[in-house]
Backbone:
């Protein structure tokens, strides 16, 4: 009896599945098959995508699904499914076992097991190499970051142009809203072939809920959290950046919050280098905020202070491993992470500041160039 031979296998639409896009660099809206055996990467595509796959995919071979459907019919399968076609290919490669991601279709897995294959799930990160970015990937991320900064600059230009009238902010004759600023941000990103979803422009109490996207009028003298995390339509790589500003004059508590978050963020950035535990960075960031007098805890049934992680990895998804948080994770060269401490208090507002960093051997490289300031 021959030894078992395992392949990794994905069946998905690469527009929605970042593991599949990473594996083959071929973008398609409909599901297709990727498998890798003995270091050889193979796609099984419909005739609709066959020529495009052969010219664009970064794989060793692109096979015709219809060709293998014909082979399945010759073997007695009247109406071959994608699994029937795949089984013929796997038989040619003498594959007996398959490693699949956790989101692999249950129906696909059941059909493969019915045909005698052993199927196991491989935990994330499915491709360990995704965590450590190549210079090409870092360049893609940095390009998206430049577009993100252009979009933020456009929004801040609107805020600078706007006028304070009593307890409202007016721009071009009407009350300026969160929706107005998000439109400016998102349209600017579209002009750079980037797509933003869930852009945050959260003023005052809205910003105290860290993932509240914000709505309604921008109010003077209150914190405005702007968190922008688009994906490039060309490269598929994300960026992520947050700045907090005030249109007018910040209150003394808000200014103290800003100074504390900035000090914590700068110290966190200073600590980012190969070999450091993300957990250590997070703990130090939390200590600095506490030393500035800002405590974290449940008050009136609502969390206040600093109650989220310090940062996260980023690439083909906006949230990827590693984490810079209470979870232990050693940083290595090539990791791309955010450092984004924040403080949130209903009586004062919210402050979050975020930069994007590449981990290097003895330091980090900051991909974010946008300045940090509070008042406009």
Residues:
């Amino acid at each position: 009896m021959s030894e078992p031979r395992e392949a990794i296998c994905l069946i998905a639409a690469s527009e929605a599945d970042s593991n599949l896009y990473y594996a083959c660099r071929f973008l398609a809206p409909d599901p297709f098959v990727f498998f890798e055996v003995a270091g050889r990467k193979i796609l099984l595509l419909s005739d609709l995508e066959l020529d495009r796959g052969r010219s664009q995919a970064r794989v060793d071979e692109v096979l015709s699904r219809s060709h293998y459907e014909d082979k399945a019919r010759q073997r007695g399968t009247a109406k071959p499914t994608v699994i029937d076609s795949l089984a013929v290919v796997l038989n040619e490669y003498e594959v007996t076992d398959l490693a699949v991601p956790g989101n692999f279709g249950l129906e696909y897995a059941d059909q493969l097991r019915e045909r005698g294959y052993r199927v196991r799930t491989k935990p994330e990160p499915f491709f360990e190499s995704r965590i450590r970015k190549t210079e090409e990937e870092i360049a893609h991320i940095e390009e998206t970051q430049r577009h993100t900064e252009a979009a933020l600059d456009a929004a801040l230009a609107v805020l600078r142009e706007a006028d304070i009238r009593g307890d409202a902010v007016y721009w071009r004759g009407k009350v300026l809203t969160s929706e107005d600023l998000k439109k400016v941000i998102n349209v600017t990103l579209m002009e750079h072939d980037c797509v933003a979803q869930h852009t945050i422009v959260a003023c005052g109490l809205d910003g105290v809920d860290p993932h509240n996207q914000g709505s309604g009028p921008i109010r003077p003298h209150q914190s405005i959290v702007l968190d922008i995390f688009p994906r490039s339509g060309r490269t598929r790589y994300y960026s992520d950046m947050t700045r907090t500003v005030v249109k007018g004059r910040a209150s003394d508590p808000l200014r103290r919050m800003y100074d504390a978050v900035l000090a914590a963020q700068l110290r966190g950035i200073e600590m980012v280098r190969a070999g450091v535990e993300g957990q250590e960075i997070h703990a130090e960031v939390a200590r600095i905020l506490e030393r500035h007098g800002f405590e974290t805890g449940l008050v009136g049934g609502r969390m206040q202070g600093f109650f989220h992680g310090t940062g996260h990895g980023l690439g083909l998804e906006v949230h990827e491993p590693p984490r810079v948080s209470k979870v232990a994770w050693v940083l290595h060269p090539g990791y791309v992470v955010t450092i984004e401490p924040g403080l949130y208090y209903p009586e004062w507002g919210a402050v979050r500041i975020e930069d994007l960093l590449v981990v290097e051997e003895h330091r980090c490289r900051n991909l974010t160039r946008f300045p940090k300031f509070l008042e406009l």
